[in-house]
Design brief:
Layout (H helix, E strand, L loop, with lengths): L8 H4 L14 E9 L20 H6 L7 E6 L13 E7 L5 H13 L3 E5 L1 H5 L1 H4 L5 E5 L2 H13 L5 E4 L26 E2 L2 E2 L20 E2 L2 H11 L3 E4 L8 H11 L5 E6 L7 H9 L2 E9 L3 H7 L9 H10 L3 E8 L8 H11 L4 E6 L7 H8 L25 H15 L2 H6 L8 H12 L2 H9 L3 H32 L8
Parallel strand pairs: 1-2, 1-3, 3-4, 4-5, 5-6, 7-10, 10-11, 11-12, 12-13, 13-14
Antiparallel strand pairs: 8-9
Helix pairs in contact: 7-8, 8-9, 12-14
The structure holds iron/sulfur cluster.
Length: 502
Amino acid sequence: MARKRVMPKEMRVAPALDESLVTAVPTHCHALLINPFYAKDPYSSYGKHVLTPTLALSSIAGSTPDNWTLAYWDENLLQGHPPADPFPQVVGITVHLTFAERAYELAAWYRERGAIVIFGGLHVQSCTEECAPHADALAVGEGTQLWGHILRDVENGSLQKRYDGSYKKPYREDPAPRRDLIPKEQFLTRGSMIATRGCHNRCNFCYLATEDMHMPYQMRTPQQVVQEILDEGSNYVVFVDNNLGSRPKYLEDLCDALMPLNIIWSAAVTIDVTDNEKILRKMALSGCTGVFVGFESLNNDSIVHTGKRTPMPDDYARRVQMLHDYGIQVNGSFVLGFDHDRPDVFKRTVDWIEANRLESATFHILTPYPATPLFSDMEKEGRILHKDWSQYDTGHVVFQPKRMTPKQLREGYEYAYDRLFSWRSIWRRRPQQLAAVPAYLAGSLLYKKSNWLWRLLIKHRLTNALWKPLIAISRRRHVKYRESFLRHEDESLKFGIVPPGV
Ligand code: SF4
């Protein structure tokens, strides 16, 4: 059985709201955007959320009219309760099911003191009726195109109860996110980018399969992405797209555009990115050091059941090796608790991760998000255990599994993380390129073995300072790797040997 973890209170409980402030005078045309607090998972890394900032609110911020002033507050950065001076005329809160209750508390506090509260985010789309009484207006669907319009209506005294945004509007027309609002020192990198929106899949458990939400795959132009990277000035970029690889040709063009920047980058892709070795080569040469891959399961039947169009698990190992051959590290995502999973799934999954030397992995207990096909199936079958959304965080069991008990599922999840975060497992999964091992070990120490330290790092705004040298080392190593890759490629061609990826 996994060891129980003691988590600092600030990581578990939202900061108290300032009840001593009884009345306030809203500042005309001043808006505040809030990312509410959520409790961290005691079995994962406590620093997970400060690697790269979410762009949900900074994207919306980009469409704020010029005559409005704007502040941004992320409660997860442990800087206390959200600001009230100047007191905002409008408060925009992003609402996700795991922190919906906190969003309602924040909304009540600001509304009682005279602010107008607007909700946006996925929970507003999936549970509109539940959210409605807690806010003055709801932005349902794509928010960037709505925010400016809502603020104009506030100014004109004509605020509506509901605004609907469409995901069909060309994504490349959206303004760039306002990264300047995000405190740089509090993240490993502020260079989170979104080049594309949507995914070519629609897996039954994914939030992208939410009823009435249809997000066609859309891309910003490679030139727009390059400009955003240059504007941010970051040499480590993390693409937080759902799937950067849904359109192989686009990914290829993007790699071409990234090549001259000499940056390093990582992104979420599906494993079918390995279908085309030419793309892997371009990814490596443009600075891709790692990919986040949703393997979901090692069981073919489970994959078929999700509806995911993907290579089958018995071909995963070969494809992981292809990524490794190009110096691309693999962070795998695994869902535990599918109907075909038995109690041996936990050990089998970690054994496989170690055997194939995945440098990192995340585990998620299967979670039926409201308004997804998985949720409606489970509800029809009477398998939903409760609707306490705060526990729909992929770290708790909220449904009745088919081939094990909820307790077995939770304990198996804890076992998987405990084993993955052990030194023995970290060492077994070290990168095959020797030069990449020191940074990998240092990163593992910081990310996986330093949960006791994260509260202090976050609270004292030291995250970026600590990670910066590691990023610099990784980038220097990768630039050398690219040079030697090209040299070897030239030599191989000279001798008539066709190297991989050419
Ligand atoms: S492949 Fe990933 S992002 Fe795409 S629908 Fe499936 S789970 Fe969602």
